[in-house]
Amino acid sequence: MILDNIWLELFSRWLLGLVFIYASYQKILFPSDFAKIIYGYDLFPLAFINLMAIVLPFVELCFGLALVIGIFPRSAALILNGILLAFILALSINLIRGHEFDCGCFSSLKTSFASSTGHWIVRDIILLSLGLQVFFYGGFRKACLIRNLKPYTVAAEKRQTLSVDK
Amino acid sequence: MHFKQTTSEVIILLGISVVAAFVVNYFSPVGIALTGQWNDSRGVISTRGKDEAVVPDLEIEDVTVAKQIFDKKQSLFVDARSQESYEDGHIKGAVSLPVIRFASMIKSFQKRYGRSQPIVTYCSGRTCGDSHRLAQLLFEHGFENVSVFIDGFPGWEAEGFPIE
Fold first, then answer.
1. CATH number at residue B91
2. Inter-chain touch A35–B99, beta carbons under 8 Å
3. Within this chain, do residues B45 and B27 fall inside the same structural domain, yes or no?
4. Which domain holds residue A146?
5. Which of A105, A109, B54, B161 makes an SS bond possible with B46, Cβ 3.0 to 4.6 Å?
6. How far is A155 from chain B (nearest CA, A)?
7. pTM, 2 dp
8. Which residue of B has its CA nearest to A44?
C-alpha cells in the first residue's frame, strides 16, 4: 500500500517539518504581531494570549525540527496534528460566524499572516493528511536520529511474551 | 506501552519547547510580557512587549476631546497608517506619515514643522499600535508635544466629524 511507502513517510515528515519551521520563523521574529493575530481570532481567554504567542512558535519550531532530523517522529507528528486540527477548528468557527479581524496593525509585517481563511483551511487539511501518514506509518523510518525513547518492536513484545510463558 | 512511550516523548519535546520559548522571550529585544493589555475599553491593546511603544499617558481616549483639539486648529493631526489608507480617507487637514516610511519622510517633515508643534497621531483605532509607535519616533526626533488619538480614523468617521 502506498501509505506504507518508506519514501512517502520521509517526504511527508520532511515537508511537514519544514512547513512548521518556516511558520514559526515569522512568529518568533514578531511575537507582538502574532499575539494580535491570536487576539483577532476572538476565541481565547485574554489572559492566555501572550503565553500562547510566546510558547506556540517554539512548539512549532521544536516539533518541526524533530520531524526533520527524526527525533521521536511519531510523537512529534501527533502534536503537530493536534495543532493543525486546532487551527482548522478555529478557522472554521470564524469562517462560519463570518468573523474577520483587520486591526491594520501589521504595517511592519511583510508576509501574509492575514490571508483568506478558506485558503488556510485547505492548506491545513493537506498538511494534516501528511501528518496522519507520518503518525500511522508502521514501518522502518529512514533518516532518524532517535526513532523512539525506548526501542519497542513487535519482536521485542514476542520475546517478552515467550519469557513470561516459560 | 506505546501510550507511555508516546507520552514520555511528547513531554520531553514539549519541555524543550517551553524552556526555549521563555528563555528566548526573556532575552529577545522583541520579547513580550507574560500578560498583555487586551481590554480595548482601557486603551490601545498591547502585548506590553519590549518593542511596543504604547504609553497610556499620551492617549486621548475621548473622541470629543480630540474634536475640541481639532477645533482649536493649533494641533497637527498626523496619520500613521499606510499611504493607501490615508488616500482612502483621513481626518480633515491631517498629514500622512506612515510608520513604515518614517525614515524616508522624517527629514521633510522636520523642515515643515517645528519641534514645538503640537501633534496628534492616529491610526485605525484601539487595536492598532502604529499611532503610539509614530509618537515615540517623533519624540526621538525632537518633537516635544505629541499625543495619541486612540480611536483613530474609524472612531472619528463614526462620529461624523470632518474627513477628506
1. 3.40.250.10
2. no
3. no
4. 2-105+113-165
5. B54
6. 14
7. 0.81
8. B38
Q: What is the ipTM of this complex?
A: 0.80
C-alpha span between B56 and B60 (Å, rounded): 9
Pick from B18, B21, B47: CB nearest A35: B47
Instruction: Say yes or no: B13 and B70 in one domain.
Output: no
- B13 contacts A62? CB cut-off 8 A: yes
User: What is the span of the domain harbouring residue B113?
Assistant: 40-158
One domain for residues B136 and B86? yes
Residue B133 forms part of a structural domain: yes
> Based on the structure, what is the number of domains in chain B?
2
Nearest-by-CA chain A residue for B39: A46
**Angle, helix A6-29 to helix A31-41, in steps of 10 degrees:** 100
Q: Which grid coordinates are listed for A153?
A: 518492536
Domain count, chain A: 1
Specify whether B150 is located in the same domain as B76: yes
| Inter-chain residue contact B13 with A47, CB threshold 8 Å | no
- Give me the tens of pLDDT residue by residue for chain B, a chain 164 residues long: 578 888 999 999 999 999 999 999 999 999 999 999 999 888 889 999 888 878 888 999 999 999 999 999 999 999 999 999 999 999 999 999 999 999 999 999 999 999 999 999 999 999 888 999 999 999 999 999 999 999 999 999 999 999 99
Q: How far is A46 from chain B (nearest CA, A)?
A: 6
